[in-house]
Amino acid sequence: MFASRVVTRLAAGIVVLVFAVVFAPAASAHGISGSAADKSTLEFIPVGIEHMLLGWDHLLFIAGIVLLAGELRRAAKLISVFVLGHSTTLIAGTLAGWRVDATVVDIVIALSLVFVGVVGWFGRPTQWRWFGLGVFAFGLVHGLGLSTRLQDLGLPEDGLFGRVIAFNVGVEIGQLLAIAVMIVLGKLAARVITWSRAHKAAHGGLIAAGLVAAVVLSVVAVTAAPADAIGSCLVRPRTETYPGGEGGHPDRDFYEPTEAFPATDFGHVLGDGFVLVHYQPTITPQELTELRAFVTGPDGQRVIGGVMPQQKEKIKAINARTTLTCDRLDIAALKEFKSRWFADPQSHPAG
């Protein structure tokens, strides 16, 4: 519970400054790697907690709301409005399969920090309704970002609704934990820091953090080389899913056209950072020989292959985040796709 408005303002203000100084240099947030395709419904709760606690932008926005509210009841109302917004788009977006540009969402979220900071810089609103509408609108955007990140983890089609709800519960638990830490640290700091301008300086730090993140993300988005093609193949965000359950490592690296691959095991190793290669059963014997040699040879470490009769593309390579589709066998493109993925830190899950 807040001891007083003065303590509340200083508490949240100090926390905002700490988060701004420590986390603002990172331009992206919510960096979770691996796959969730083989996780049970209850296991999505800690995934949601982790997702929230790694999201410095989300935490800064919450801290800014607490800072601006100045009292427990108002802060609770505003946080509830924010929760309603991001829960709505998180659940609806994931169930509907909505995918948005993660960089654009991150830029808007960064600007939400600027929004709260600017409002606080000029003092608390005399009419809170319009500010609440702004919080709700940004909550909707935050939820789209959460949904996109969640889908990037890979979701089994069975039991999807329960897993999304569990993930959302985890997000809210993580959010409550973060708010509790903000209050405790802020109250401790308030005992030794009595600077009268701390409240305004905190809003300035919030504005600076949002602007820096937005500018960095925008520059990266404009200057980054397009990565939508490798050789004769195209790259897109991964949409493929595999059945959940108790999977392990497949008993072989390559499954022949007459053999059914173990989908649960494929989903398991996808979460371990492997690359999966699927092919149509109609490929020529020569193409089959070349593909088998790639998967089972020196270039095929952490690569697993199996036939996929229903796919439209002749060759499809999949990692935890992206998919390479090819209308013809392009071994060079497969090698490049694998090399790019293994150069990504997210291809090496923690633990």
From TrEMBL:
<keyword id="KW-0812">Transmembrane</keyword>
<feature type="transmembrane region" description="Helical">
    <location>
        <begin position="104"/>
        <end position="123"/>
    </location>
</feature>
<dbReference type="Pfam" id="PF13795">
    <property type="entry name" value="HupE_UreJ_2"/>
</dbReference>
<keyword id="KW-1133">Transmembrane helix</keyword>
<feature type="transmembrane region" description="Helical">
    <location>
        <begin position="206"/>
        <end position="227"/>
    </location>
</feature>
<dbReference type="InterPro" id="IPR032809">
    <property type="entry name" value="Put_HupE_UreJ"/>
</dbReference>
<keyword id="KW-0472">Membrane</keyword>
<feature type="transmembrane region" description="Helical">
    <location>
        <begin position="53"/>
        <end position="72"/>
    </location>
</feature>
<feature type="transmembrane region" description="Helical">
    <location>
        <begin position="160"/>
        <end position="185"/>
    </location>
</feature>
<protein>
    <submittedName>
        <fullName>HupE/UreJ family protein</fullName>
    </submittedName>
</protein>
<feature type="transmembrane region" description="Helical">
    <location>
        <begin position="79"/>
        <end position="98"/>
    </location>
</feature>
<feature type="transmembrane region" description="Helical">
    <location>
        <begin position="130"/>
        <end position="148"/>
    </location>
</feature>
